Amino acid sequence: MAEADFPTPSTDPAAASWAPAPGTSFEQWLESRVARLETRRYDWDALKFQADFDPKYRRAQMRYVGTGGTGVAKDVNTVPAGHFTFSTMVIPAGNIGPMHIHNDVEEIFFVLRGKVKVICEKDGQTWETVLKDRDLISVPPGVYRSEVNIGDEDVLMCVMLGSAKPVTPTYPPDSPLAKIKR
């Protein structure tokens, strides 16, 4: 692809996150697009407001591309997001990702390790499945979803959201979390 063929912010707003900084070499530019495990840390505070309400909601996010949908506004230690976010999530044994909804994006869960029950709800209908190692679900926008670790070990899963800056999710109106300030 010739340099002139690269998308520009005028043709694709996400292109600003891909463009090399002025004066950056090709090597420096691509190295800035790498997120290494050794430079990541689990953020147990991203969703701490939920765990403070009930310890069963305790879980951690490790961000790689963008900041995801947890409400973390900025993380300079991530690859800038163009069209999606990518992180890993740890859900300790017995813990829960509470029922929530993303109205603006699909959300993908890919289980690397563990056993998680995913519960989805829409228009009074409920559906659930159990995901194990290397299983995936893509939850469409507008569908409530919850993740429950039903195994004896921590669940480790990848989470992708289909936007560089997804809207912070909301909870069902009858959920006590709907009334909590972040």
TrEMBL record:
Residues 1-20 are annotated as: Disordered. Gene3D superfamilies: Jelly Rolls. Pfam families: Cupin_2 (PF07883). The lineage of its organism: Bacteria, Pseudomonadati, Pseudomonadota, Betaproteobacteria, Burkholderiales. This is Cupin. It comes from the Bacteria. Residues 88-157 form the Cupin type-2 domain. InterPro entries: Cupin_2, Flavonoid_dioxygenase-like, RmlC-like_jellyroll, RmlC_Cupin_sf.
